[in-house]
Design goal:
483 residues, Rossmann fold, N-(1-d-carboxylethyl)-l-norvaline Dehydrogenase, domain 2, globular, binds D-mannonic acid
């Protein structure tokens, strides 16, 4: 059967059960710039924008892709329309119309700056993953990072999100325009303030007053974002085509559950967030700590241990009873105590809901996708819990298992031919090549990675003992070694 390609001209041919933009797209204006239009952005923030647009035409999105033309090439012929599949028992498909354009940096730099200095632009959101922030081990801007070093020299011709935001804000200030709010939507603790410090540090290299202006005048709300978004695969493309009746080169998918919590700052109140289910609150910390430690900590645990045990997806790992049992104990007995001060937040309710979400059989979430960028994820998802458990004298046996599993995972990647998706891949693979199977020596090698294991942790005998024991047990087919 020949189907038409999704576009503004063919939209009316979509099957009736496919939800379509319920507003006049041509009447919308761009008021929102986004850096990093990957699947997560298109399944999450753009979905909220879509709902805002039903009442308020100011929130069409101009997206900026920093590294790849793939999304632009796939979506431009579709007038930037794409399908979002919500993975319930019967998937629900909706066409999202919130995206107006995808600009490429650096090729479209003038157009990017035109958007950044437009008086209409009030919001700039960012999903560039942990590594896109170019931070060093202590969470500060890494001025030796090649992109940052480049942007500090290049000024008006940046390549990193930090360089673009700094130059965009500099131009707005020069023109006497109010700054836009910068909303980080990545899984980093304290994401807004972390980005503010990075930008202020960047600006301080050239202009102290500008740096102080960033600190005092620009809003960088903290956020918590949550929705499981498996990467697009051929099966999704075929399912979306069959269900919608139109060909979409790059649909996206996510679980039905979605949450967005944003720190309630005046500069954020420009949109009616409550009407689309976004929570504005003064205290995001309680949400973002819990989410990073429960949802993301558990994900990374399943990824590294599950892969060692021959599992491919989150749902498969959850069907592996010893692994699922281990994960639940880890969450309830080791991670929950680190969230003791969560106040009204229901930690155990959140754990139960997370385990339920992970079991959703309609979501095929690859463990290999979650395993990416471990050197950036472990320090924010698991290491803070480990450090707090160590300081409080709580047991480390279970907490050590996912970390030791990550070490084994790196070594397995060396054996499989040496491909590792991680900004520290070269260092990690070299280290993995030196490992010889002796648990004590191998663990000691990994503990030299100071950006992951802060020196006090690396030298803590209780942690070293727990890691060595876990590493040894995992050597035989991913045995967990502790209850
Ligand atoms: C996952 C996250 O890929 C990963 O590392 O842990 O993308 C996770 O699915 C989301 O943060 C859920 O909100």
């Amino acid at each position: 059967m020949t189907r038409h390609r999704l576009s503004a001209a063919t939209l009316s041919e979509a099957r009736p059960q496919t939800a379509r933009p319920a507003y006049a797209r041509e009447a919308c204006r761009v008021g929102w710039v986004h850096f990093g239009p990957g699947a997560f952005h298109r399944a999450h923030q753009a979905y909220y924008a879509e709902r805002l647009l039903c009442r308020d035409p100011r929130w069409a999105i101009s997206a900026v892709s920093l590294h790849s033309a793939a999304a632009r090439d796939a979506l431009a012929p579709q007038d930037y329309l794409y399908c979002l599949a919500e993975l319930a028992e019967r998937p629900r498909i909706r066409v999202i119309g919130a995206l107006r354009e995808i600009l490429l940096a650096p090729a479209d730099r003038p157009a990017v700056f035109a958007r950044l200095v437009s008086a209409d632009t009030r919001l700039v959101t960012v999903t560039v993953t942990e590594k896109g922030y170019c931070l060093g081990g202590a969470g500060q801007l890494d001025v030796e990072h090649p992109d940052i070093a480049h942007d500090l020299r290049a000024g008006a011709a940046p390549c990193s999100v930090i360089g673009f935001l700094a130059e965009g804000l500099r131009r707005r200030r020069a023109q006497g325009l109010k700054p836009f709010a910068v909303i980080s939507c990545d899984n980093l603790p304290n994401n807004g303030p972390t980005l503010r410090s990075a930008l202020a540090a960047f600006a301080a290299h050239t202009d102290d007053r500008f740096s102080r202006w960033i600190e005092s005048e620009v809003a960088f709300p903290r956020t918590m974002v949550d929705s499981i978004t498996p990467a697009t695969d051929a099966e999704l493309i075929a399912r979306v085509a069959a269900a919608s009746g139109l060909e979409d080169a790059w649909p996206v998918q996510r679980e039905p559950f979605t949450q967005w919590v944003i720190e309630d700052l005046p500069a954020v109140r420009v949109a009616d967030w409550a009407s689309v289910g976004v929570t504005l609150t003064a205290d995001v910390a309680v949400y973002d700590r819990a989410k990073l430690r429960i949802v993301n900590g558990a994900h990374s645990t399943l990824a590294y241990i599950g892969l060692l045990r021959g599992r491919a997806t989150v749902a498969e790992a959850m069907a592996d009873a010893p692994l699922a049992g281990f994960l639940e104990r880890l969450l309830r007995e080791d991670i929950a105590p680190s969230l003791g001060g969560a106040g009204a937040f229901d930690v155990h309710g959140s754990i139960a809901a997370t385990l339920q979400r992970f079991r959703n059989p309609s979501v095929r979430h690859q463990l290999a996708q979650i395993a990416w960028d471990g050197s950036k994820k472990l320090p924010v998802r698991l290491m803070p819990t480990v450090a707090e458990a160590l300081a409080a004298g709580r047991p480390l046996e279970r907490l050590a298992v996912p970390i030791a599993a990550w070490m084994r995972f790196v070594i397995a990647r060396v054996r499989a031919g040496g491909v590792l998706n991680d900004p520290a891949a070269e260092r990690l693979l070299a280290l993995g090549r030196d490992c010889d199977g002796d648990a004590r020596r191998d663990v000691a090698r990994f503990l030299t990675l100071q950006d992951i294991f802060a020196p006090p942790l690396a030298a803590a005998p209780a942690l070293v003992r727990a890691l060595v024991a876990a590493y040894r047990a995992l050597g035989s087919g991913g045995q967990l070694g502790c209850e």
